[in-house]
């Protein structure tokens, strides 16, 4: 049995569909009726993917202990950042991504879970001090010292988020935001490709402990804006936020708005240095990754 925590989310939902579609027994932690319905949609094609749901919350350790019973592998993709950015009420990034995930590791250990697949992000060790970075680093550290077989997946920025309007890459409105100089090479990666990787390492016999991974194309944010502008046949205005200003804003917002502080950190990360990771972990598993340019072409033309 695989327990997916975060299975009502974008990446998590794709992982649930893949695992269940491959015939694995999947249990999905859902927080409430509405999230439960989202999982129903996952299996709602009539073919009966057979996903079991269990009510629980990362902020409720007892629910995590119950959810982990008879589980062989936990796959943890959950994060509070989407809700925080949407301004919805609820627990903080520290409470969910930090303390909540740590409770999940405890619960998994106590229940005798064998493998724990954890989705972190590439560059988490940059030491920027954002709430998300602190939470992810603490969970990675806890896993390192646990008795669980850990598989930490650190993907680069998702194309759908960071090369789309939500990531202030709004080609339709002719505006792209860049933190810093914007010339460090990223490996923007497709969410589907990371879902396929996460599903693979959840079930393959001998996965690595740590996988840093990105898409096939190393491309800076400036280059992405130029490519997008070419596909759109329109001028794209690049709005620049100097890195020192972003750093200051990040520090000031850390307590007042943990979501925005973490997003500023993600932008800063993209301005720091070229990605040192590649798409090799995807290709090694037969996943043919989509390039950032192909994503932009599909989205824009
Ligand atoms: N975006 C990027 O560029 C990027 C890059 C690298 C890594 N990542 C990582 O990839 C993952 C993204 O996953 P995603 O796309 O599926 O995120 P998402 O769409 O925002 O979904 C978040 C999931 O977390 C669940 N969740 C939130 N608070 C919870 C709580 N208190 N208890 C239990 N579950 C809770 C949500 O449940 P509800 O549906 O009930 O809200 C939902 O299932 C994250 O771990 C992120 O850090 C993202």
From TrEMBL:
GO (cellular component) term, any one: photosystem II
A Pfam family per the record: NAD_binding_10
InterPro entries referenced in this protein's UniProt entry, alphabetically: HCF244-like, NAD(P)-bd_dom, NAD(P)-bd_dom_sf
Keywords of this entry: Photosynthesis, Photosystem II
Domain NAD(P)-binding: 6-205
One record GO biological process: photosynthesis
Keyword Oxidoreductase: no
CDD domains: SDR_a5 (cd05243)
Official protein name in the record: SDR family oxidoreductase
Species assigned in the record: Kribbella sp. HUAS MG21
Organism lineage: Bacteria, Bacillati, Actinomycetota, Actinomycetes, Propionibacteriales
């Amino acid at each position: 049995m695989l327990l997916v925590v975060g299975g009502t989310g974008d990446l998590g939902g794709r992982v649930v569909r893949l695992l269940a579609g491959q015939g694995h027994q999947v249990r999905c932690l859902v927080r409430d009726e509405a999230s439960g319905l989202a999982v129903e949609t996952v299996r709602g094609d009539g073919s009966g993917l057979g996903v079991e749901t269990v009510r629980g919350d990362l902020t409720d350790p007892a629910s995590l202990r119950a959810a982990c019973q008879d589980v062989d592998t936990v796959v943890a993709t959950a994060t509070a950042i989407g809700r925080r950015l949407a301004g919805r009420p609820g627990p903080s990034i520290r409470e969910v991504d930090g303390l909540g995930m740590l409770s999940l590791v405890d619960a998994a250990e106590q229940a005798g879970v064998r493998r724990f697949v954890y989705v972190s992000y590439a560059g988490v060790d940059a030491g920027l001090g954002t709430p998300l970075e602190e939470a992810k680093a603490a969970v990675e550290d806890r896993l390192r010292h646990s008795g669980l077989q850990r598989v930490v997946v650190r993907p680069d920025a998702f194309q759908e988020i960071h090369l789309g309007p939500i990531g202030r890459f709004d080609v339709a409105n002719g505006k792209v935001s860049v933190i810093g100089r914007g010339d460090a090479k990223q490996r923007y990666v497709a969410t589907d490709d990371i879902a396929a990787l996460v599903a693979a390492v959840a079930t393959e016999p001998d996965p690595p402990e740590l996988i840093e991974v990105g898409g096939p194309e190393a491309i800076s944010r400036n280059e992405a804006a130029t490519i997008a502008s070419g596909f759109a046949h329109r001028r794209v205005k690049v709005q620049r936020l100097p890195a020192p200003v972003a750093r200051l804003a990040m520090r000031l917002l850390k307590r007042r708005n943990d979501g925005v502080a973490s997003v500023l950190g993600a932008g800063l990360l993209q301005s720091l240095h070229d990605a040192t990771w590649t798409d090799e972990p995807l290709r090694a598993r037969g996943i043919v990754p989509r390039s950032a340019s192909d994503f932009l072409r599909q989205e824009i033309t």
